[in-house]
């Protein structure tokens, strides 16, 4: 139930959803009313403001400010745990292959750690999406890593989880079975605070390697931003706002540890 509710709430935590609600409100009011023009203007303002690169960057920086970086370059970890959300969601009309999403740095950085000998094993956590009854994301990423030269016996997959809370719970079970002691958690910077809290609640104390920054100087260098509205910046604003709300929900549910 929580999983379905969290997906439904995404609409209410998206500036596009706010704009649509304002337009619906204006449509329900009597024509000629001053409130109609106010609601329509507010809808336009929401879209313009949150699709501004400068605003999106500021929101992303605020959301990512708490992302810890406790990775120790001199440490050889028993396992690096990488969280899903790396592949584009497959649609019914697509073939079985899925492309990497904007969060691809999670898997590419994990591959670098394995290639450099900074970790002995990798645990990929990501189950089957409810819209896609095919193979899990973790299984597809395992095939990808093997294609890059990572031995199959160095890869473990966790295929049950559907969200960050379940990532932690299911990963803890596998870590206990394998007897791994030193762990490194890899995920996007905007997600790291909530993810690390979930893993601590599940009894694990991994180091953190935050990647895939959406805001800040590195992101600005790759995707220069200004005040002009762009769809990609609207998406960044929405992602950051949803994550902040998600942290509050997870704390309320008791899924994260301080």
Task: Give structural notes.
It is a single chain. The chain has helices at residues 2-9, 15-28, 34-50, 53-64, 105-115, 137-147, 164-178, 189-201, 217-222, 231-253; strands at residues 77-83, 119-125, 155-158, 183-188, 207-211. The longest helix is centred in the C-terminal third of the chain and has 23 residues, at 231-253. By secondary structure, the protein is of the alpha/beta class. Helix 2 packs antiparallel against helix 3 (34-50) and helix 7 packs across helix 8 (189-201). Strands 3-2-1-4-5 form a five-stranded parallel β-sheet, sandwiched between helices. The radius of gyration is 20 Å and the shape is elongated. It has two domains: 2-65 and 227-253, no CATH class; 77-211, HUPs (Rossmann fold), CATH 3.40.50. The chain contains ten helices and five strands. Strand 4, helix 8 and strand 5 (207-211) form a beta-alpha-beta unit. Helix content is 50%, strand content 11%.
Helices and strands: which structural class? alpha/beta
Q: At the fourth CATH level, what is the homologous superfamily of the largest domain?
A: HUPs
> Stretches where pLDDT falls below 50 for ≥5 residues?
none
Give me the Rg, rounded: 20 Å
Strand order of the largest sheet: 3-2-1-4-5
Q: What is the number of helical segments per DSSP (H or I, 4+ residues)? A: 10
CATH fold naming of the largest domain = Rossmann fold
At CATH level 2, the architecture of the largest domain is: 3-Layer(aba) Sandwich
Mean pLDDT score: 87
Taking the sheet with the most strands, its summary is: 5 strands, parallel
Order of helices and strands, N to C? HHHHEHEHEHEHEHH
Number of strands: 5
Q: Which band does the percent of strand residues land in?
A: 5-15%
